[in-house]
């Protein structure tokens, strides 16, 4: 029997946070790197009018998701967890992208118990519905609100766009190996209680 249920964001967490950069550079004639993105709102971070950026993203979104590289170490860690934990991927992607998303998981040979595309950054309702025990996220305010509302630990994957302070219970990690180590310690601690 699997002992814990993990809620896991997809974009910028399982996929590499640089996924959009080549598309932005090509389509907006820019030459940026991830280090140049200091805010989660890309239209604001890159000084692109919000409606123009939204239209561009709506058009390019499926292609970006199809071609997103997996984050370094994500497959190895998720593979090591698949027998022991339930893996529920909860994403702000809209549900018309379900096929694209499942295809990407299949192509990367990533196992999952469930994929929920909620079409919004408010993941609290889905995390509550699926009774996740821990969450993995790259968006700062999501990490904070999930932790504060559900009183569960949240792993926040460090990026240049999520550097605001975090409360205890939101744990910053630089990579999947650090997340795995924290989870192992957390599970060992839970067993001893």
From TrEMBL:
The keyword Hydrolase appears for this protein: yes
**Alphabetical keyword list:** Hydrolase
Write the Enzyme Commission number(s) for this entry. 3.1.3.-
Q: Where is the signal peptide?
A: none
- Superkingdom: Bacteria
Q: Could you say which protein family the record assigns here?
A: Belongs to the 5'(3')-deoxyribonucleotidase family.
Q: What is this protein called?
A: Nucleotidase
Query: What is the native source organism of this protein?
Result: Bacillus kandeliae
């Amino acid at each position: 029997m699997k002992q814990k249920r993990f809620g896991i964001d997809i974009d910028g967490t399982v996929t590499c946070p640089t996924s959009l950069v080549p598309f932005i550079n090509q389509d907006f004639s820019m030459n940026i790197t991830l280090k140049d993105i200091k805010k989660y709102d890309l239209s604001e971070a890159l000084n692109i009018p919000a409606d123009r950026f939204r239209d561009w993203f709506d058009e390019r979104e499926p292609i970006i998701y199809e071609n997103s590289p997996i984050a370094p170490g994500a497959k190895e860690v998720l593979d090591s967890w698949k027998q022991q934990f339930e893996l529920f991927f909860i994403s702000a992607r809209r549900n018309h992208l379900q096929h694209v998303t499942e295809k990407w998981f299949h192509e990367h040979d990533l196992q999952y118990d469930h994929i929920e595309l909620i079409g919004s950054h408010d993941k609290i309702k889905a995390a509550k519905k699926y009774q996740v025990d821990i969450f993995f996220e790259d968006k700062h305010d999501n990490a904070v609100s999930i932790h504060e509302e559900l009183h569960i630990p949240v792993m926040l994957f460090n990026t240049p766009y999520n550097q605001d302070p975090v409360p205890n219970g939101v744990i910053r990690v630089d990579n999947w190996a650090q997340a795995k180590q924290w989870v192992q310690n957390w599970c060992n601690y839970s067993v001893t209680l």
